[in-house]
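Morning F.,

Quick status update on the modeling queue. The single chain you submitted on Monday has been processed. Sequence for confirmation:
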Amino acid sequence: MQIVKQGARFHLLMHSTHLLEDRLRVLLKPLGLHAGQARFIHALGRIGEASQRQLSSEFNITPASMSQMTKRLINNGYIQLRRDPKDKRTAILSLTEKGEQLLDEVVAIWQEVDQIVVDAIGAENADQLFAQSGNLRDALGGRAPMVNPNPSPKRQITRVAHLHRSGNL
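Structure tokens below.
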């Protein structure tokens, strides 16, 4: 019996991503967060406030899942909910002071995971990997939550500068 040795090269990417997610899970555990909640906290920190409906759409999760996640984060004191004065049915979410502190911890953990990559493959290769990962995400139709898919050139320059300063570029 002949064994087929030809495989899908993307599997290496998936396996590497899985290993990094495992490390991230371990690092976030002391904060009582999972990766989705950390991304949610980061998005709210970046944009200031948003409706549950917007966030549900941006993160591509069901309104029920979004409601469950926001309930946990509210109960833990990380986010606050207020009613939109223009539409009382709309819930507006924003970070609390405790949430802002948590955001700092989340960013530090993300930088730690970035450093794992740098240590594994070197700074230049890591920079290329991160850039190409962004290109791949964009080419597949993805984008960072709450980022305008067609920003004006001036807004894009401001956003790139912000992402660079925050270490998320």
